[in-house]
Each structure stands twice: as structure tokens, then as C-alpha cells.
Design brief:
Blueprint lengths: L6 E4 L17 E4 L4 E3 L4 E5 L2 E4 L4 E7 L3 H5 L1 E3 L4 E4 L10 E6 L3 E3 L4 E9 L27
Antiparallel strand pairs: 1-5, 2-11, 3-10, 4-9, 6-8, 6-11, 7-9
Length: 146
């Protein structure tokens, strides 16, 4: 697999440098760059302490870690964040938008979310048709419970 070089500006000396975690995944953890205390029902943009210049033709997908809700009761409000290559200035710090479901505190350097970069999808042309050629599965949510 080819290697891409990405310019990164660390905006905090308190977080660990970005890295893969023990070869377990191609997602990379992002860490809180500041201590954040939230009461249930509050919203916050958690600063992640990095600004990156993504390669042309790529975007970053930012999602919560699997333990984020269990550990802090936080929901990422946009479900999954998409950061495009134009967000690449010195002060374009990545942040995680969260909603607290309970009183919680995220400490500096806590791994709160993760990202990966993805190539842009190909240009798509939509062709209207009267019928689709695939098998009909019964519509969304029709596969039943097992």
C-alpha cells in the first residue's frame, strides 16, 4: 500500500504525537488538547490539538472511539465529522463536537475520537430509470430480527 505524507501542526505540547495503535487498525486516535468539564445536556467543541494539511483528493473522517460513550457519556453531535482538504491553515484546529448525556470530565491527552483519510468518491452521474435490475429485499428494516 502506498504511503502518504501529511503535514501536521501540533497546537498543544500536552498531547502525544499522532500514531497508529499497535498495528490493530488503520484509524488513528485523536486526543483532547484541553481539560473539558461538561454537565449533562451541555455542548462543547473539544479541541484536538492538531491542524493537518491533507493530500489533494482526500478528506478525513472523524468518529468517536468505541469506548467514548461508555467512558464519558459523550455523543458526537454530527455522528461522523468530515474534514476536507481546504481546512488546512495554521489555526484550523480539529475539534470534536460533543453533547454530554451525563456530568463528565475529559482530561488532557484522553483519546476521545479517531480518524482516517479517504480518497474522494468518483464523479457520479445519476441515470433515472423506471425499475432497478436488483432483487427486491422488501425495503429498509425488512430483514427481521434473529
Amino acid at each position: 500500500m502506498p504511503t502518504e505524507t501529511i503535514q501536521i501542526r501540533y497546537l498543544s505540547d500536552a498531547i502525544e504525537p499522532l500514531r497508529y495503535v499497535d498495528g490493530k487498525s488503520d484509524w488513528i486516535d485523536l486526543r483532547a488538547a484541553k481539560r473539558v468539564e461538561l454537565k449533562a445536556g451541555e455542548f462543547c467543541l473539544i479541541p484536538l490539538g492538531v491542524a493537518l494539511k491533507l493530500p489533494e483528493g482526500y478528506e478525513a473522517h472523524v468518529a468517536p472511539r468505541s469506548s467514548t460513550f461508555r467512558t464519558w457519556g459523550l455523543i458526537q453531535t454530527n455522528g461522523m465529522g468530515v474534514i476536507d482538504a481546504s481546512y488546512c491553515g495554521d489555526n484550523d484546529e480539529w475539534r470534536m463536537p460533543v453533547y454530554a448525556t451525563r456530568d463528565t470530565c475529559v482530561e488532557v491527552n484522553d483519546r476521545v475520537c479517531q480518524f482516517r483519510i479517504m480518497a474522494h468518491q468518483p464523479r457520479i452521474v445519476f441515470e433515472p430509470v423506471e425499475h432497478l435490475s436488483g432483487a427486491d429485499r422488501g425495503g429498509f428494516g425488512s430483514t427481521g430480527k434473529q
